[in-house]
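---------- Forwarded message ----------

FYI, see the enoyl-CoA hydratase record below. Original note from H. follows.
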Amino acid sequence: MIYEGKSLAVKLLDDGFAELVFDAQGSVNKFDRQTVTELDEATVALKDRSDVKGVLVRSAKSTFIVGADITEFTALFSAPEDEVLSWVEKTSQVFDRFEDLPFPTIAAVNGFALGGGCEMALACDMRVADTSASIGLPEVKLGLMPGFGGTVRLPRVIGSDNALEWMTTGKDRKGQQALEEGAVDAVVAPDALADAALAMLKDAAAEKLDWQSRRAQKKAPLQLNKNEATMSFSTAQAMVAAKAGKHYPAPHLMVETVQKAASLDRDGALKLENQGFVKLAKTDAAQAQIGIFLADQQVKGKGKKLAKSSDKSIDLTAVLGAGIMGGGIAYQSAVKGTPVIMKDINRDALDLGLKEAAKILGKGMQRGKVDATKMATTLNAITPTLEYSTLKDADLVIEAVVENPKVKASVLQETEETVSDDAIICSNTSTISIDKLAESLKKPERFCGMHFFNPVHRMPLVEIIRGKDTTDATVNAVVAATMKMGKTPIVVNDCPGFLVNRVLFPYFAGFSKLVLDGADFTKVDKVMEKDFGWPMGPAYLLDVVGMDTANHAAGVMADGFPERMESIENDPVTLMYNEKRLGQKNGKGFYNYGTDKRGRPTKDAADEAYSLINQHAASDQSFEKDEIIARLMIPMANEAIRCLEENIVGSAAEADMALLYGLGFPPFRGGVFRWIETMGLDKFVELADKYAHLGAIYQVTDGVRKMAADGKSYFA
């Protein structure tokens, strides 16, 4: 044994070749500080060995190396800049020292080789991947750039155009695509990986392969003439500007760094990368995106734990109500392998539900993601029916009829009389109290809410709402079924609007008050989209939701929280609803919707909407961007805080992920609690107090005021 650590070991094979094997104590290999230290110690041990002809780098696990240990970043990035710079410099130099070993090196890549794992492979002279491999540099998804030499080596291996596309999008490549783009030298079957890599290493040692020139190319300036460089980097800058926009600094800085480093050797280029990494590590965007990653891990980990505790198998699902929502839920169950019964009271609705599933599959076929077999299998797994009797063998029944408590109660009651005693019954409702609906059931312990978001196949969140009588066994089984559907479950306790809609409607109320105070709804939309980063501004979102749905839900929220969410006199949403301006569903709301001469959809601010609003609003006023953001976001933030304090949601991380997955909260802001923390709790309280005179939704809780005074954090 040449070297043995806790995360990796090096031993001498036959014929003078060495094998460096990553085998961390956990389930996957990752570059934590211990592993980096051990890699350096192993490199030192190898450097002076005259009996070593070459080194094969591989993993003893089912995956190569998943990247750096993100959990170490939070504390590290809060350190002063010079400390962060010192860390990244020292770490990247470990990879340099490995790259400089006096004999050829090769990486045998299986499974994921991401981030630092990809950079380890790039530090080798050659790379062989098996058919399971996925290789990439996804740091941009954390608001960062590669820090262990990725921006230096990848452009010199596959060219700057390909490398920038890899790094600025963060998308990984399967083995064959990596081969076509030049990132690996061969792709083989998994059982042939080690032998193929060792054979190539032996060819390199025998000088049948010119490994020295490969290494020299990685250490030299980029081989680009002036015109090629201009074209390459201007194209990349344009692509990043179009796709990433102004809120994500990481892809912009990557392009700038590779461009500036193009004329430098490895050491000079690496200095620029180290500096860029530190600069990004200190941005709010990186803090937010790393926070999202960690929160996502927390939410998924909690879901897996609950699902593992379930002893009930969901082998047959039923959906009651076959409209677009019901059809979407049925599709989601079927496409993930669980047969589903789709029940409605009329044949036209069933046809609509089946068409919805077929439409989703058809779009998948157009994009090449679904083949004819998959389409047929999925549709055959959906059984349309008009009869309640077909539900008798269902393990899970999801009621998705019209959002009317009396109708839902009737359907749930009839369902309970039909299904088996151990079947679980859920209601897909967006606002109606689960405890109220449970009153119609004899066994409320097997009942809970299961709130899907539209369109079901695209929205990752499912809110699972626990009623006061819902058992843990019921929740665990529904969590397991949700995850089997490919969705992210977040369990919340019952209240009007649950979590997502409860925090959304104060945001809408803030918008309505602002418009009545004289703000132009198109300008508000522009600020909330372009400056805050929402995918849709509030007026546009209300048009998408539908004014009938929004008006009804606002009434439910007003009944549930009359002290804060009372109906607003002359609310623009109600004005639109009363004039049957329902939004996109009938082509007219705050905006008018249509198509141009080429058949492309159009959206124009509606004069009719202005006329309705102007009858009741103050004269036109110009509001600063910061005031528009404050007047909409403070009510949402305050309500989210109340949900956490009232134990509606279990943690700030879960609340942030729910808004991210359910509403499209801007990822670069990390969620509503991360937004508050980025501002500072004391600054948030100060800002909210500035607008407290506008009503109860602007008034902070005693809890957050105390947390601010004590210097506490929601993520401690």
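H. also flagged this: The domain at 3-282 is CATH 3.90.226.10 (2-enoyl-CoA Hydratase; Chain A, domain 1).
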